[in-house]
């Protein structure tokens, strides 16, 4: 059964408390929280004060996806705001190994996100230090985009790499995940499904989450 991580980027921000309550009552495992700086990606979302409030509204895992430059400047602040998993982009980190050690030393799980154009084998020499890889299945910055089909191949490549090394690394897929394509994503080797629009624009989000969870 995959881990389900609804992305609150697609939630109704005027009703964030109710959206959190709905997720708490659902089979969702993580709250996926997308932070954008308008520099690494061409969009700005929400930041520390919002995450601090969401933290108070849930006991579920807060999976924070930083789409920002110089994430090392903010790692401690995100820990204090309540992040359990902190993910930085391979493309945004000049000293990725140092960034991951910093995240772990602060007591969080360390994630690395990788854009659609970045070869999976760029992870070869860092994979031992990673708890979760977030394979972007769209270009980061916006919800509601279409899943890039080549991602399936990339998931298989990463799964092969982690299997060869005997590592237990979660493989998270972010962008364009639907009830229809979830099975092929999981079959390729993904363990965590992020879903924004699929969950929050559904007429019955709790049921949609259950459908994603039931994928094998
Ligand atoms: C995109 C974000 C995603 C986004 C996914 O940059 O990282 O987490 O919210 O949204 P959907 O599932 O609607 O594609
Ligand atoms: Zn994300």
How would you characterize this protein structure?
The protein is of the alpha/beta class and about 220 residues long. It has a single domain (about 5-215), classed as Alpha-Beta Barrel (TIM Barrel), CATH 3.20.20.70. It contains eight helices and eight strands; from the N terminus they run βαβαβαβαββαβαβαα. The chain has helices at about 15-25, 50-55, 75-80, 95-105, 150-165, 180-190, 195-200, 205-215; strands spanning about 5, 30-35, 60-65, 85-90, 110-115, 130-135, 170-175, 190-195. The radius of gyration is 16 Å and the shape is globular. The model has no long low-confidence stretch (mean pLDDT about 100). The chain binds D-xylitol-5-phosphate and zinc ion. Zinc ion binds near residues 7, 65 and 194.
Give the number of domains. 1
Q: How many individual helices?
A: 8
What's the arrangement of strands in the largest beta sheet? 1-8-7-6-5-4-3-2
Class by SSE composition:
alpha/beta
Give structural attributes.
32% helix; eight-stranded parallel sheet; binds D-xylitol-5-phosphate; 216 residues; 8 helices; binds zinc ion; TIM Barrel; 8 strands; 20% strand
Please write out the topology.
Elements (H helix, E strand, L loop, with lengths): L2 E4 L9 H10 L4 E7 L11 H9 L4 E7 L7 H7 L3 E5 L6 H10 L3 E6 L17 E5 L14 H14 L5 E5 L7 H7 L3 E4 L1 H4 L4 H9 L3
Parallel strand pairs: 1-8, 2-3, 3-4, 4-5, 5-6, 6-7, 7-8
Helix pairs in contact: 2-3
């Amino acid at each position: 059964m995959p881990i389900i991580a609804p992305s609150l980027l697609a939630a109704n921000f005027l009703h964030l408390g109710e959206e959190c309550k709905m997720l708490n009552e659902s089979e969702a495992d993580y709250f996926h929280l997308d932070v954008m700086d308008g520099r690494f990606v061409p969009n700005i979302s929400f930041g520390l004060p919002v995450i601090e409030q969401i933290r108070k509204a849930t006991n579920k895992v807060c999976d924070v996806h930083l789409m920002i430059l110089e994430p090392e400047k903010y790692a401690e602040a995100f820990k204090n705001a309540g992040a359990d998993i902190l993910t930085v982009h391979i493309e945004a980190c000049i000293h990725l190994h140092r960034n991951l050690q910093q995240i772990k030393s602060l007591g969080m799980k360390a994630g690395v996100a990788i854009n659609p154009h970045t070869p999976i084998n760029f992870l070869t020499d860092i994979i031992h230090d990673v708890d979760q890889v977030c394979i972007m299945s769209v270009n980061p910055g916006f919800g509601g985009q279409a899943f890039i089909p080549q991602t399936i191949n990339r998931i298989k490549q990463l799964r092969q790499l982690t299997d060869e090394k005997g590592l237990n690394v979660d493989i998270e897929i972010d962008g364009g995940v639907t009830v229809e394509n979830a099975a092929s994503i999981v079959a390729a080797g993904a363990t965590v499904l992020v879903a924004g629009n699929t969950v929050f624009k559904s007429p019955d989000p709790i049921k949609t989450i259950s459908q994603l969870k039931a994928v094998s």
